[in-house]
Design brief:
Blueprint (H helix, E strand, L loop, with lengths): L1 E8 L7 H17 L2 E9 L9 H11 L5 E4 L2 H4 L3 H13 L3 E4 L3 E2 L2 H30 L12 E7 L5 E8 L1 H15 L4 H10 L12 H5 L17 E4 L2 E5 L6 E5 L6 E4 L8 H15 L2 H8 L16 E3 L6 E5 L2 E4 H6 L7 E3 H14 L4 H48 L5 H22 L12 H15 L6 H9 L2 E9 L2 E8 L1 H9 L11 H14 L4 E3 L1
Parallel strand pairs: 1-2, 1-3, 3-4, 12-16
Antiparallel strand pairs: 4-5, 6-7, 8-11, 9-10, 13-14, 14-15, 16-17, 17-18
Helix pairs in contact: 4-5, 6-9, 12-15, 13-14, 13-18, 15-16, 15-17
């Protein structure tokens, strides 16, 4: 039976070595059962209350694709602590014909899902309540309820027994001066964006040592976030403004405001940074802006509820000066986000999105898969695949020889025992040889999928596929799918400013291009082994010179 291992540790009282410990115990179980280990999945420092775990998601994907017959974990709570998620996991694995086995509970059944899922859910709820109670007690003592905002330093204290006292803070005089400057400039008429740009241009580090952004200054009205809305700066600590709930569809934690009656407020005059007059003037201006006609009009559209679908180059285009992302700066215009929003880049040029996308589409078809480069790539690829096959054959021959030798030794020991020889050392040697025999059989049975041969007319096939995808952009029903397929072909687009416009450099994903060209008429992509995909990228860097080009 083919088995996969899943291991996870959260950040509370566990370390990275916990993953190794879990994997080692699961491997021992697989060897004892004589199963074949196919893959190991792990997530480091991620809570079991969320499904947004890369290793967990890959496990589910591979289970649906039939990569293994069983999943082995230390305990059910390593996979999830959420009752609904445990039930959904069990249902998906059962549908895929995959057994779920843990070292603590054994073969997982509906009974385990119900009982253990309930226990884990109660554990999380109880932990949350105790944590909340402790934080509230700390806040009522005038201490931090978690996190450190700009303008303060952590104060490390101990009680009479040497135990740490958490939540102590003290004013950072340098950052306090910046805070007063922000309030003064805002009251004087400057916008949060203009203030952020000026601070960045002067090289003043923002919160967490990063660039200043206008959102960090103006914050959010309901949540009371941002420099201009933080009541701690006038010596008033406000806690429990909001709580978090998990979106059952995405698994993400979303903030929800609490009624003001549930807020916990405590006066901490020793943490005051801004005087009352300056604070009130800033709040008055924030209210004027909030109720201005332009803001009211934008708020009526409820723009925050409408997630824009990605364009062809969303997140892929980068500035050639600062290497940061190119973003939308108006209707159908793109420019460097750090230049326009943060003031940390000198590249102020912009380019129309339709023009850039048309140039990229033409380049995807005509530049990245030129016939002479493709032929050189195919020759190099097949040479690399042949080398990998030879290495695999040599490794398999070595395993077969060792397995044959081990079997002969086992046969000799069994004959000796049958003749009446008995000793502790003989029995121990027998167990060791049996374990080694199972390990060698597992390795020998793990035969990799043969790498596909490449079509000799690869360039023409690829060009036709890209043309078809380009045409599909005009069909609203499949436009988004076509965009995602085209985006998979692009690694990076760099816009390098020049005197008269831009020089545009396109870097393509060679493996994705080959997979697209090799896909069948139903657009189902050909399966390419991971080691073969890596070799394609390495060889393509030589055979496809230049892998980047200029328009």
């Amino acid at each position: 039976m083919r088995a996969a291992i899943y291991a996870r540790y959260s950040s509370d009282k566990q370390s990275d070595t916990s993953i190794d410990d879990q994997v080692r115990q699961c491997q021992a179980h697989i060897i004892r059962e004589g199963w074949q280990l196919t893959e190991t999945y792990s997530d480091h420092g991620i809570s079991g209350a969320t499904l947004l775990r890369p290793g967990y998601q890959q496990l589910l994907s591979d289970a649906r694709d039939g990569h293994f017959d069983a999943v082995i974990a230390e305990a059910l709570d390593r996979l999830s602590r959420d009752q609904e998620d445990v039930a959904a996991l069990y249902k998906q694995l059962t549908f895929a014909g995959v057994r779920l086995i843990t070292l603590a509970e054994g073969d997982i059944t509906e009974l385990h899902v119900g009982l253990k899922g309930t226990m884990n859910a109660l554990f999380l709820k109880d932990l949350a309540q105790k944590t909340r109670r402790g934080l509230e007690g700390r806040v009522r003592q005038g201490r931090s309820g978690g996190g450190l905002c700009y303008g303060y330093d952590v104060v490390k204290e101990q009680d009479a027994n040497g135990e740490p006292i958490h939540g102590g803070r003290a004013i950072n005089e340098t950052e306090a001066g910046i805070i007063n400057r922000i309030f003064t400039q805002f009251v004087g008429g400057q916008s949060p964006r203009a203030i952020a740009k000026q601070l960045n241009q002067e090289g003043i580090p923002g919160p967490r040592g990063k660039y200043w952004r206008d959102t960090a200054i103006r914050g959010h009205h309901q949540r009371g976030t941002g420099i201009l809305r933080n009541e701690l700066y006038v010596g008033r600590l406000v806690w429990n403004r909001q709580h978090y709930v998990k979106d059952p569809q995405t698994g993400k934690r979303l903030a929800r405001p609490n009624p003001s009656s549930e807020w916990v407020t405590h006066e901490v005059p020793y943490l005051r940074i801004v005087d009352d007059d300056l604070w009130q003037q800033a709040q008055d201006r924030l209210q004027v802006i909030r109720h201005s006609p332009a803001v009211n009009k934008a708020r009526k559209t409820r723009f925050w509820e409408h997630r824009r679908p990605p364009h062809l180059l969303t997140g892929l285009a980068h500035c050639g000066v600062c290497s940061n992302r190119i973003v939308s700066v108006g209707r159908d215009y793109l420019a460097c986000g750090h230049a326009r929003r943060l003031g940390t880049c000198t590249n102020r040029k912009s380019i129309r999105r339709p023009i850039l996308e048309a140039m990229i589409m033409d380049s995807l078809k005509d530049r990245l898969m030129q016939p002479d480069h493709v032929q050189a790539f195919i020759a190099g690829y097949h040479q690399e695949i042949n080398r990998l096959n030879r290495e695999r054959e040599q490794g398999a021959n070595g395993i077969e020889q060792e397995l044959s030798k081990t079997k002969r030794k086992l046969s000799g020991l069994i004959d000796a025992i049958a003749d009446g020889l008995r000793s502790d050392g003989l029995q121990q040697k027998l167990r060791q040889l049996e374990a080694r025999k199972r390990e060698l059989e597992v390795k020998l049975s793990a035969t990799p999928v043969p790498a596909p041969r490449l079509h000799p007319n690869l360039a023409a096939l690829y060009r036709q596929k890209v043309t078809d995808l380009h045409d599909a952009l005009n069909d609203p029903s499949i436009r988004q799918e076509a965009i995602e397929l085209l985006r998979s072909l692009i690694d990076r687009v760099v816009l390098q400013p020049q005197d008269k416009g831009y020089v545009i450099i396109l870097e393509g994903d060679i493996a994705a291009m080959v997979t697209t060209a090799q896909s069948d008429q139903t657009n189902k992509k050909a399966a390419i082994p991971e080691d073969a995909a890596c070799s394609m990228k390495v060889v393509a860097g030589v055979g496809f010179e230049p892998t980047t080009f200029r328009l």
